[in-house]
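We emphasize that the prediction below concerns an isolated chain of 118 residues; any contacts that depend on oligomerization or on bound cofactors are therefore not represented. The input was used exactly as deposited, without trimming of termini.
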Amino acid sequence: MTDAIIHRWAELPADFPMEKLERRRVIGTQAMISQVVLEAGCDVPSHHHPNEQFAHVVSGHVRFGLGAPDTPAYHEVELGPGEVLQLPGGVPHSAYAIERCEILDIFSPPSETTGIDE
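Result of the prediction step, given as a token string:
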């Protein structure tokens, strides 16, 4: 007997924390993974959270804004399928869906809320 659990994205409940964004999550004790679908034009405002985050782009293209907006440190990066953005905790970031995209977000430690839920 193991404590392993099988999850199927299609069977998990979805939530919609903002317009054009659908999310399903598996929350463990040490990490959390979210399947996030951004419809084209979805504009996630700048936010930050204490969790370390890895954003793996499965499909589509997304532009991330990194750093505090309107500061010299702010810059943008565009990611496509097979690319992963690693964000340390506390780093301000935003996202804009250039086209419909699916992203797998991994957070550690897990949290019931992220920067877009607050």
